């Protein structure tokens, strides 16, 4: 029997959290997105979610079920997959102040590259999806199809900052990814990552996008801070995304499903009619008082 180890520490101190039926995933992906993911799951019958006892990183096993280039080309057809404006872009532009050479890993169609260029930064991007790369090239953006390991080897300790937005959770070997990113940073350089926050409303959802073949790991504040103990990194800042308008319905449904079964009163409090009222109120602006989906962390290379 294969020993399960943490993809961050390599240690066998891990805890199994739950098991997911692959048949259910295939059925639900077809029903929700019209995408057949059966070939992405390589004949597996079950997927298991584990947690690293030391870092609290949650990770899926088997670890080879990450989505193919063809899978992401299908997702790219949805308007929400590559968005031109994101909360974390504005936060990062502020944290990049003083940086001369910047690298973005996983640039997609180039939304952040465009923002950073307009702000005056000397930035280049890496993207492995051919479909996304083609769009970025059409926009005349400085992005190339190169693996981070190659960039790190060619430009050791070259960049003032390495940025990665909504990418790390897709990687089956995050320790390797982080080592390469750190290798490309000059001493004192900044590593900026933004990932879905597993302690947000996501923890109450059955979310197809937060499991294979889309996501391979799940991150939290504790996990991000744990990197200080195993990598030459120091946390400079952590920020939480305010709840976005397009996440309000999912936010409300997640908490409704979580709390409704706990008491009769909760069934009334989270009824469909009440949720509609809450949604209208939250859309007036008070949604920003609640934490949204993502967590952002700016590290400094020690």
Brief overview, please?
Among the domains are: 87-202 and 219-243 and 293-301, Rossmann fold (3-Layer(aba) Sandwich); 246-287. The chain has eleven helices and eleven strands. It has helices at residues 22-33, 69-75, 87-95, 111-118, 130-138, 148-154, 174-184, 221-230, 248-260, 264-269, 272-282; strands spanning 14-21, 46-52, 58-61, 101-105, 122-126, 143-144, 159-165, 185-196, 217-218, 233-242, 291-301.
Major sheet: order of its strands? 6-5-4-7-8-11-10
Task: Using the CA coordinates, give the radius of gyration.
Answer: 20 Å
CATH architecture of the domain at 87-202 and 219-243 and 293-301: 3-Layer(aba) Sandwich
Strand-pairing-aware structural class: alpha/beta
What does the overall shape look like? Answer: globular
Q: Give the low-pLDDT segments.
A: none
Please identify which CATH superfamily of the domain at 87-202 and 219-243 and 293-301 we are dealing with: Vaccinia Virus protein VP39
Highest-level CATH class of the domain at 87-202 and 219-243 and 293-301: Alpha Beta
Oligomeric organization of the protein chains: single chain
In terms of DSSP E residues, the strand content is 15-25%
Query: What is the ordering of alpha helices and beta strands?
Result: EHEEHHEHEHEHEHEEHEHHHE
Give the helix tally: 11
Strand segment count:
11
- What is the rounded distance between the termini? 39 Å
CATH T-level topology of the domain at 87-202 and 219-243 and 293-301: Rossmann fold
> Which bin fits the share of residues in helices?
25-40%
């Amino acid at each position: 029997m294969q020993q399960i180890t943490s993809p961050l520490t390599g240690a066998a101190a891990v805890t199994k959290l739950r098991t997911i039926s692959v048949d259910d995933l295939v059925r639900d992906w077809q029903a929700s997105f019209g995408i057949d993911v059966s070939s992405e799951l390589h004949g597996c019958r079950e997927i298991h979610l584990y947690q690293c006892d030391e870092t609290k990183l949650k990770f899926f096993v088997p670890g080879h079920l990450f989505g193919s280039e063809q899978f992401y080309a299908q997702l790219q057809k949805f308007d929400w997959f590559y968005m031109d404006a994101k909360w974390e872009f504005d936060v990062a532009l502020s944290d990049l102040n003083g940086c001369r050479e910047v690298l973005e890993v996983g640039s997609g169609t180039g939304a952040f590259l465009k923002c950073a260029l307009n702000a005056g930064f000397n930035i280049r991007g890496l993207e492995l999806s051919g479909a996304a790369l083609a769009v970025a090239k059409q926009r005349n953006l400085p992005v190339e199809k190169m693996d981070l390991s190659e960039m790190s080897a060619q430009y050791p300790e070259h960049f003032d900052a390495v940025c990665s937005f909504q990418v790390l959770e897709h990687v089956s070997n995050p320790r390797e990814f982080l080592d390469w990113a750190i290798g490309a940073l000059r001493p004192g350089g900044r590593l900026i990552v933004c990932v879905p926050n597993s302690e947000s409303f996501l923890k109450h959802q059955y979310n197809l996008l937060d499991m294979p073949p889309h996501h391979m790991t799940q991150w939290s504040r504790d996990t991000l801070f744990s990197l200080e103990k195993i990598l030459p990194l120091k946390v400079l800042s952590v920020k939480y995304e305010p709840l976005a308008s397009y996440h309000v319905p999912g936010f409300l449904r997640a908490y409704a499903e979580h709390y409704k079964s706990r008491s009769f009163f909760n069934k009334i409090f989270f009824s469909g009619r009440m949720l509609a009222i809450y949604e209208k109120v939250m859309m007036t602006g008070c949604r920003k008082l609640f934490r949204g989906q993502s967590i952002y962390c700016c590290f400094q290379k020690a």
